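To: structure subgroup
Subject: Chain for Friday's discussion

All,

I'm putting the inputs and outputs inline so they're searchable in the archive.
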Amino acid sequence: MPDNGFKLNGIMFYPARTADYGATSNRVVYEVTDPSDIKDRVQLISKWPVLMMVEATKIAEVPIFATAPLQSDYVDLWHTSSLGNRSSGMKRLARQLYDRMPRAVRLRVMAVYCRRSYSLSNPRFYTRLRL
């Protein structure tokens, strides 16, 4: 049985171009990928307001927080018997090069990475749907 008596059906993001959701003409929503499916945390950086819609079904009556809510990206780490060295050789090399860059360059590289990775255009995290 799912934790705390609820089954999560899905999460959608609705971006607006103004602070007033009713005034926006946007007809696009984004389905959020389940973090446990991609073994990663789904994050979003946006300069516009985003409405998060969560759909869940109550399937059982249980005491509130009988089971503590856990983030799925951490659950996999906690259940892994040996973390070991999870980085590939290329990732290690990229990290070493990044660590040797001047601070200003590192900040710029990280900003570009975050904008690309944590935007609604990332198909690994989000699926665009038309209304």
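Points worth raising on Friday:
The chain has a mean pLDDT of 83.
The CA atoms of residues 87 and 93 lie 10 Å apart.

D.
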